[in-house]
Methyltransferase domain-containing protein
Amino acid sequence: VSIYFALYLRKEVDNIINNPDASSIASTNQQQSGSSSDICTDNPYMLSVNETFEELHKASKMWLTNLPQHRLKAADDQYKAHDHQKFFPFESMGTCNEISCIGGKCSADTSKIACGISNLRRLDSCIVYSIGGNNHWEFELDILEKTNCEVHTFDCSGPVQRFVKPENDRLHFHHICLGATRSAGPLAEGKPCTREKELCGETWTMTDIQ
């Protein structure tokens, strides 16, 4: 998923999210035609992956073509437990030539595996989106220390008062969730919302966020 979001233009991503069945058909047609016009060539990950963008494009399109089968399999009860097994549909699209653990020691709960941090270090400015921080800021603070990036964290779970953002001019918090369609949360509708696992804030699409 990360490779796909990094590899493709925003219009293509939104099309996949909002109309997955149609996009699967389009994926098949593009594979047959060999088209790769939707690849985002102005991409900071270009120097960090071992495969060509054309190879990544082909692997990603094949995964999207098989998306209905992935969804059917994911509905099985054995994948409903809260463990890493539930992520089985997300296949590896490529390999990274430089992997870093951001936000803590590798395998720590707050640590996230990232590809190509050294390339981000060379940039004068960049933007990192962090989705669902749950009031843990280790990842964001590590990104701020290791790069010149501006970080935007999105999380609408629970009341906004539970989030305590560390002081940093390059760190921004938004009481907003990412979803396939835009919708107002209970708070915007004047309803009470106090539980941490409840989606209290608004939900925006990727286009809205960008």
